[in-house]
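Hey, sorry to bother you again with one of my protein questions. I've been staring at a protein lately and its backbone has me curious. I owe you a coffee for this, so here goes:
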Amino acid sequence: MTPLMQAEGIGKSYGGVVALSEVSTVVNAGEVTCVLGDNGAGKSTLIKILSGVHRHDRGVLRVGGAEVEFASPRAALDRGIATVYQDLAVVPLMSVWRNFVLGSEPTIGYGPFRLLDRRGAREIARKGLLDMGIEIRDLEQPVGTLSGGQRQCVAIARAVHYGAKVLILDEPTAALGVKQAGVVLRYVVQARDRGLGVVLITHNPHHAYPVGDRFLLLKRGTVLGAYEKSEIDVAELTKQMAGGAELDALQHELARVIES
């Protein structure tokens, strides 16, 4: 099976600063690839390359087996790569339905006399949300009045509705409580089950492990480890991400201090 997206030895430098070095991973249809790391690990740089914001300096990026270099996020979107950033790219004062069709608005009329098809847009939003099992009572309410979890779910449903093949999620649960994080992760699983390849960027292994099929651990721009789910459990994943050797050394040092 040809992967939806594959990174081979990707590297990126900004002047003399190496942000990424020799990073490889794969995104398959119907699977979740989790990219984990602490602040400064290189997660943001990687997703900017995958989503067309930045070009890589080294290595190869493939989509559907063909080598690509995205000139812009629009070029990535045209190839089915949709990214939902932490700020969600929503307009808080606009209604839910208006945000759902933002950038892909249906119109009526011809030429310079075209107008926004409000009824059609509301129906697109309603159907797109219901297809993902998302119920929002009032599509006219400003999207800024929704909870953080609901806004994430709207953004995920929008990407799925408009034909994304690969869905990249940038820390979707970072600012959410336990219950809302669970809701978002449920829709991540739904997107996976609809055949999308999902890239979940997170610093929380307890959010990643239940939904992930493979795990890429980054540290200071390099690969700390790459595992299939069958190769690692959540305890070991947490330990590696937290720096197991450093924690063990710290525990020994603290024990000596306490004893003395």
